[in-house]
Design goal:
The chain is of the alpha/beta class. The chain is built from 15 helices and twelve strands.
Length: 456
């Protein structure tokens, strides 16, 4: 077991990383001081709820807690005001009062939505993050919660820290391969924000991570969480320019997601493209070397992620044709912006980030030049042998996504409430066996040295 602590300005909460946590939730809530008189509300999505909702409810009820559960539709479109209204309505009908605790069981969408619901419901109740995806190692840590507006991602939100993050790494074994690859984009970002040693280790570990080796995966997640926790502690509310470094690759990524109507391109896939495109922008502005751009392209490709919009489109992951002008227009709504310019967090080297404001009159032309540079660099670099191949969503490029036009509103999402104290019928599925506990992990420690160094 590994426990990291996020601490800043009077806030302190644990991030526990261990296989089998879902079976021990009663004990974990006990340790957090959540007594049996407090009603619990489990928020999940229909995919995760079907896999883990029943066992989480059963574990909590066997420990003596009263539990209600509500599942929203899976996918980014559930991060909307319409879904928030549905969730809070379900909480009211379930009798959740100010003593209640919300448990966000799922990936980044459920974590953001659940945290925001907890922040605004009855002017704030406590909540616990129960991540089930690799991507959530980033989203669940830091206390930023939000829903999307049709024009911009995460524009409606709050800084609202959880009571705890309880990360059961066994849940990762049920992720589809595309979700696994997508999740590692944020780990790539954390390595690039850390140092060259983390980047080199991640290159070496990519094969084992894609196959969810239990020891290497747990080690990687702990290292990534530690990077984010340190940055959050230094700038918890993004007022000093330090936490903005976590937005590397995300100005482009959020615009791509908005252009796709928050459907189709997964967040990690958008981040991978954003990391490459924004590094090309840094080269274009004279703030980074072409060698860094090459390194970023090779790193995202090592995880089977698209390096450019062209690669994403060729794999059926991106529906809209490349349009730097349209994407630039959406970037003007980014929450980091100051005045009329668009702010980018640009890598100049591993561990070094510059905050750069691009004036609106130069934005489209500069982005187009950077995109051309990124595409040319990507074409010049052959795919590494043995790399994971990009694959379209199951059933073809449009099978798993709706078609929302550029700037269109997210459709209202409805959800399912477990009734009569019993889980939905679909919730009885049994997930695949999960990995064992991380080797050598202690109750409370700093991130261990890279596995590659320990094992030679």
């Amino acid at each position: 077991m590994t426990t990291l602590w996020v601490a800043y300005e009077g806030v302190r909460y644990p991030v526990v990383v261990r296989a089998g946590l879902f079976q021990e939730l009663g004990r974990e809530l006990d340790a957090l001081g959540v007594d049996r008189a407090r009603p619990l509300f489990v928020l999940s999505d229909e995919a995760v709820g079907a896999l883990y909702g029943a066992r989480v409810e059963a574990a909590l009820r066997s420990a003596g807690y009263a539990v209600a559960r509500y599942d929203v539709p899976a996918g980014e479109r559930s991060k909307s005001l319409a879904t928030l209204e549905a969730v809070t309505g379900a909480m009211l009908r379930a009798g959740i009062d100010r003593r209640g605790v919300l448990l966000a069981l799922g990936g980044g969408v459920v974590g953001d939505l659940g945290g925001f619901a907890a922040a605004v419901y009855l002017r704030g109740i406590e909540y616990v993050q129960l991540p089930t995806t690799i991507l959530a190692h980033d989203a669940s840590v830091g206390g930023k919660v939000a829903v999307n507006h049709p024009l911009a991602k995460n524009i409606l939100g709050a800084f609202y820290p959880p009571l705890a993050v309880l990360y059961d790494v066994a849940a990762l074994r049920t992720l589809p391969p595309r979700e696994v690859r997508s999740g590692y984009a944020e780990l790539v970002k954390h390595a690039l924000l850390s140092d060259a040693a983390f980047v080199a280790w991640l290159h070496q570990a990519a094969w084992a991570l894609l196959r969810l080796d239990p020891i290497v995966t747990a080690e990687a997640l702990v290292r990534g969480i530690a990077v984010k926790a340190a940055i959050v502690a230094d700038d918890p509310k993004e007022t000093r320019g330090v936490r903005e470094r976590l937005n590397v690759g995300h100005t482009v990524a959020h615009a791509l997601e908005a252009a796709e109507g928050f459907g189709g391109l997964l967040h990690g896939e958008a981040v991978a493209v954003g990391l490459v495109w924004e590094t090309a922008l840094a080269v274009e502005l004279g703030r980074a070397s072409p060698a860094l751009l090459t390194e970023v392209i090779r790193l995202v490709r090592a995880f089977g992620l698209p390096a450019t919009p062209a690669e994403a489109a060729a794999a059926g992951l991106l529906r809209r044709a490349a349009d730097a002008a349209a994407w630039a227009a959406l970037m003007r709504y980014d929450k980091k912006n100051r005045g009329r310019g668009v702010r980018f967090a640009l890598l100049s080297a591993p561990g070094a980030v510059d905050l750069v404001d691009v004036p609106p009159e130069a934005l489209s032309e500069t982005l187009a030049a950077a995109l051309q540079r990124a595409e040319e660099a990507a074409r010049a670099i052959p795919a590494p042998e043995g790399a994971e191949r990009l694959a379209p969503p199951d059933g073809g490029p449009d099978a798993a996504v709706g078609r929302t036009p550029l700037g269109g509103g997210a459709e209202p999402a409805t959800g399912r409430m477990s009734t009569g104290g019993r889980p939905d019928a679909a919730a009885g599925r049994t997930p695949a066996a999960g990995p064992g506990s991380p080797a050598g992990a202690s109750a409370e420690r700093a991130p261990a040295r890279p596995v590659a160094e320990e094992e030679g």
